[in-house]
Amino acid sequence: MVHPGGWFEKLYPRLTTPYASRIHLNSPVTRIIRDNTGVVITTPSGTQRFDQVVLACHADQALAMLGDASSAEQEILGAMPYQDNEVVLHTDTALLPRRQRAWASWNYRLDQRDSEARVSVTYDMNILQRIESDTTFCVTLNDSASIDPNKVLGRYTYAHPQFTLAGQAAQGRHAEISSTAYRTHFCGAYWRNGFHEDGVWSALRVAQALGCDEAAPPPSQPSALPAHELLTPQGVEGLG
Ligand SMILES: Cc1cc2nc3c(=O)[nH]c(=O)nc-3n(C[C@H](O)[C@H](O)[C@H](O)COP(=O)(O)OP(=O)(O)OC[C@H]3O[C@@H](n4cnc5c(N)ncnc54)[C@H](O)[C@@H]3O)c2cc1C
Question: Quick one: where's region Disordered (predicted)?
Answer without folding.
Answer: 214-240
